[in-house]
Amino acid sequence: MTGTETATRIRPANTADAAVIARVHMTSRAVTMPYLPPQGRDHAQVTRWIEEVVLASCRTWVAVRDGEVVGYAALEGDMLEHLYLLPDVRRQGVGTLLLDEVRRHSPEGLSLYVFQSNVEARAFYERHGFTVLDTDDGRRNMERLPDMTLRWTPPDQG
């Protein structure tokens, strides 16, 4: 590790993380997905959604660097519901660390939805062995944007 790199650790999220997870979620979507409609909910509403929906129904982990939560991932069953990073930590291995943690908890495989226009996320998942299962015209998501289902199957399962 060089002097400019910092260790990132992954730990289970808890309700005390809800506000910072909401900030990561909102910041990431605004910066990395400019094609999405403007966020209709404020930080307090997104925090409440993280507490009452995400943390209540998903196994959720946060990536912590220098004491700051810089990303999170949420898994419901074998569906990766969320993986978001602060924009300034992208391409530094943080997403891979979160994805590796999620995969450890999904030994039979893992699926996710991604917007078709989210080329960077699609490339990230492809590099990590995900393949396209299907595509959709947007009827199944609240943004009404074309998406696709990706699936990762462990080598010993395929």
Automatic annotation (TrEMBL):
Gene3D superfamilies: 3.40.630.30. The keyword Metal-binding does not apply. Keywords: Acyltransferase, Transferase. One of its GO terms (molecular function) is acyltransferase activity. Residues 8-151 form the N-acetyltransferase domain. Its EC number is 2.3.-.-. It comes from the Bacteria. This is GNAT family N-acetyltransferase.
